[in-house]
TrEMBL record:
Transmembrane found in the keyword field: yes
Keyword Oxidoreductase: no
Alphabetized InterPro entries for the sequence: DUF6311
Organism whose genome encodes this protein: Micromonospora chaiyaphumensis
Assigned keywords, A-Z: Membrane, Transmembrane, Transmembrane helix
Protein name in UniProt: DUF6311 domain-containing protein
Length: 602
């Protein structure tokens, strides 16, 4: 056995630098660390749902997650069964639903098919929310760090705010399609590349592919991106008109190529959306005048460290539409950054863009602390084509991105200042960021439990009753305020059809009419919803019984199902028994087999 030679002091001095070189923070490791922080933050925000994806949902409202889970299950049917992707009869049967007009998130749902199959649509939903937050932050960090700022901390700050702003946290409750903005930084960058491109055909084709993919994530966000790019470029050209002479040819050629290629790829889906069955024109009046209150820009968002739900109740249309809520500290900092860097063309253009869309986000009536002041400029635009399908409060999402980019520029400029005491400058910069961002730091989404899918559904007991062209009718009937049956169907990969549901459709089911939430008005649906809300059992007459049977025949109902644990289940059972006779209990539901009443011979 040979003894090892002792390690000398000189050897130790040689090994130490080598170890330091081996473990130093390379640019790639820095990038991975930033991405890891973003992912951990997204998991923190969604931790309440991850604890029980199937049994927990955002505490304030549960309809949108159920709708998204239905769309995720539809993507499974598209992949496994080759179903038509842009329209379905699996809910709102027999009229069906125009999925292109309802943000069916095919670009998200189809890649998630393996997760949906293995773990269910509830897990896919929370996965999309988590990846939407982290992915958006990471994408903005990537673009900012490669093309706008050299300082990675500056890019990380900008990416953080773009991914975890109060507006993004608000939409994280229900809208994975809105927070999945990871394509937008690349779309914006490719548009800017076109202004100086030497290969506009290639660059226009790349932009077209990005635009096509984003159209199947969320068209409204795509429209916002196009409008924001247009306003920003105009703001730059107004300041430096000489730029237009060099930029208009490649920009025009590239956008023309993009329009032709993206138009060809999207022509049929857009035809289905605007002219196909169950197409509608314009949003429901319920959401058309959604706008921000001016005070919303100076108040922390509800799902943040400094947020207060009660204080915010009248400053936004609802808790999923808190599209501003920067807080006083960040609002003041943003104004200070613009004043400090006002000599820079990009900063002035960003400021003009952010302010323009902040004003539009106020909606048709400008208000301050829920008191109407004047008519807003949106009143002049709301009836224009495409804009008539926009929710104005969401223009605040553009202002959010502008603030994120301004933060990145400010940190970059602060790091580049030539001052005697650099440590003092770094301390002041960190203090400013903490002052601005700590009050709106993300907190875990507040969640509540929701009823489990009945064993009658999960055990496939329904299959012995419901045929391919028949429906399972729940009590109450599926509607905007009762989306649990949509979760039942989603848990079976939409193996059975249901009437009604939560979606946008033309009024009274007439293609081309203005949009509304839900399908044709249902007499029995309204009756049962009232019984569930009040607990009172009405006395029904023969006319009401005939009307209910007509609706059951129209829906081609096979069975009517009432969960035993439904709110006011006993008054609901007594009401339905007046219409179709006695119920029988099967597992955890009351069941009415109505096939003999709804068959064509009957």
């Amino acid at each position: 056995m040979v003894d090892e030679p002792p390690v000398t002091a000189r050897d130790a001095e040689t090994v130490a630098p080598a170890a330091r070189r081996r473990w130093r923070w390379t640019p790639r490791r820095l990038d991975l660390a930033v991405y890891g922080v973003f992912l951990l933050a997204a998991l923190w925000v969604t931790s309440g749902i991850w604890a029980d994806p199937a049994g927990r949902v955002a505490a304030l409202y549960s309809s949108d997650p159920a709708q998204v889970q239905f769309f995720l299950a539809h993507s499974v049917r598209v992949v496994l069964h080759g179903e038509f992707p842009f329209f379905t009869e699996q809910f709102n049967y027999p009229d069906g639903v125009n999925l292109m007009a309802n943000t069916a998130i095919l670009a998200l749902g189809i890649p998630m098919v393996p997760v949906t199959l293995l773990f269910g649509p509830a897990v896919s939903f929370v996965t999309l929310v988590t990846l939407g937050l982290a992915g958006t932050a990471a994408a903005w960090y990537r673009v900012l760090s490669r093309h706008l700022v050299r300082h990675r901390l500056a890019a990380a700050v900008g990416g953080w705010f773009c991914g975890f702003s109060p507006a993004m946290l608000s939409h994280a409750n229900w809208h994975p399609n809105i927070i999945s903005q990871f394509l937008l930084p690349f779309i914006v960058w490719r548009v800017l590349v076109l202004t100086r491109s030497t290969r506009p055909v290639r660059d226009g084709a790349l932009l077209a592919l990005l635009v096509t993919a984003q159209a199947f994530v969320n068209e409204e966000i795509l429209l916002f991106t196009a409008l924001a790019c247009g306003v920003f470029l105009v703001a730059v050209v107004v300041q430096q008109r000489e730029r237009w002479a060099a930029a208009w040819r490649p920009l025009g050629a590239g956008l023309a190529v993009c329009a032709v290629l993206a138009g060809a790829l999207l022509a049929y889906p857009l035809w289905v959306q605007f002219a196909g069955p169950m197409a509608y024109h314009g949003l429901s009046d319920t959401v058309r005048d959604y706008g921000n209150d001016i005070a919303a820009f100076f108040t922390p968002g509800s799902p943040t460290l400094g947020g207060n739900e009660r204080a915010n109740v009248n400053l936004a249309p609802n808790y999923s539409e808190e599209n501003a809520f920067f807080g006083w500290s960040l609002s003041l900092l943003a104004v200070g950054i613009v004043v400090w860097l006002r000599r820079e063309v990009v900063v002035r253009a960003l400021a003009a863009t952010g302010l323009f869309f902040a004003v539009l986000s106020l909606g048709e009536r400008v208000s301050w602390w829920d008191r109407d002041l004047i008519t807003g400029p949106w009143e002049l635009l709301v009836k224009l084509p495409l804009l008539d399908a926009v929710v104005p409060t969401r223009f605040g999402l553009i202002t959010t991105v502008v603030v994120g980019v301004l933060l990145a520029l400010a940190v970059q400029r602060a790091a580049a200042l030539r001052v005697v005491e650099r440590r003092t400058m770094r301390t002041l910069t960190a203090a400013g960021l903490v002052f601005a961002l700590l009050p709106i730091a993300p907190m875990p989404l507040r969640v509540t439990t929701r009823p489990a899918v009945p064993k009658f559904i999960t055990a496939d007991r329904w299959r012995q009753y419901v045929g391919p062209d028949q429906t399972l009718v729940s009590v109450p009937v599926p509607a905007m305020g009762n989306t649990d049956p949509m979760r039942w169907a989603a848990s079976t990969d939409l193996a059975f059809k249901i009437p009604g549901g939560y979606f946008l459709a033309p009024r009274n089911g007439v293609t081309g009419d203005p949009g509304r939430f839900g399908g044709r008005p249902s007499g029995i649906g309204e009756l049962l919803a009232d019984v569930e809300a009040t607990g009172r059992t009405p006395k029904l007459d023969d006319r009401q019984r005939r009307r209910f049977l007509d609706e059951l025949r129209h829906w081609r109902a096979a069975i009517v199902v009432l969960p035993l644990n439904e709110q006011n289940a006993e008054p609901l059972r007594r009401t339905v028994e007046q219409l179709v006779g006695p119920a029988r209990q099967e597992l955890d539901v009351w069941l009415w087999d109505v096939r003999t009443l709804t068959s064509q011979s009957a």
